[in-house]
Amino acid sequence: MLRWSPTSRASSAWPLLLALLCLLMSCDNARTNGPAAAAGAPTGTPRTETDPYAGVNTIAEDRSVWQQLLSDHRAIVRVVTYTPTGVEATTESLDSTVRARIVDHARTMQERMKAGVPVRIWDPVFSDLFGAHASVKLEVSQTELGVRIVESSADPDVVDLLWSHAAGVSDFVRDGHRAGRRSTHRIAAGSEPPPAEVAIGGSPHKILLAQPTASQLLWLRSTGAGEVLNLRKPDEHPEYDESAAAEKAGLDYCSLPYKTLDELTDEVFDTARRHLRDADKSGATIVLHCRTGNRVAPVWAAYRVLDRGVSIDRALFEARSMRMAAPGTEERIRSYIALQRPASR
User: Fold this and answer.
1) For position 342, what pLDDT does the model report?
2) I need a surface site. Which of 50, 120, 121, 234 has the fewest CB within 10 A?
3) Which domains does the chain have, with CATH numbers?
4) Average pLDDT score over the chain
């Protein structure tokens, strides 16, 4: 007759405990690295030549770099153009350490997209985009100060996801960890693409590289913008009443027109800076635009140096990302700043 004993019960339970532990580890892998990991994708290195997930880091490896980039977001400048088939984006930094992380992150995300191994699976935009990875073409090339990424798809629904993802990454640059904890804003299917933009790390304000349409103003309002600062002259677009479009979208509106450097007076600098300072005090977001970004650049650079305390080199780096091209613009910026800070001369 069989008799129960503590030792016999413990020894018979070990196989069950080990099986349960293996099951829990498998579930955790699926939770962190996504369905590909649950299907057997390796999560460590080295890889084998036949491994279909070669080059894909563990989620822990990639999260470490990602979290550090969120911490370093103030050192980053990102330029994004939304195209009919996807996105073209350049993400750069003057800081060599941050720059290396940007390159590393871009390369690893390229491999994850190729393999369909997702990140942020709790975020519907990211989850759906990685789910459609087979329809995405992603190219990464290194620039002098960071990376250039071109993402495209022949599927209109996937293009909407690419736009949403790109706009979300720009928010990460602006807002760091706070944006990282939010779900990505989804652009509605069939929408007009967002306007080309520059995201400045640590600043909520949105610099556009094109004239926004009425529908784009509505989209900007839905993302938290509160005011439009237009540096174009009304006769440049007589067929379009931007003031009325801004009012309809629920945005405050300020026209501060100039076209040539001769028209870039101290009053233009002063007024733009005052609007930006007031927005900073109230926690509001301003959308600044002209036709290409060239006219936004000088007033932005002056505000950054005189009101936000950044270096002139950093401010000019940001201004150049706004397509600052008119000859003599940098000299005009420096002369205005010097007049406001006589001790710096």
Assistant:
1) 65
2) 50
3) 57-202 (no CATH), 203-345 (3.90.190.10)
4) 87
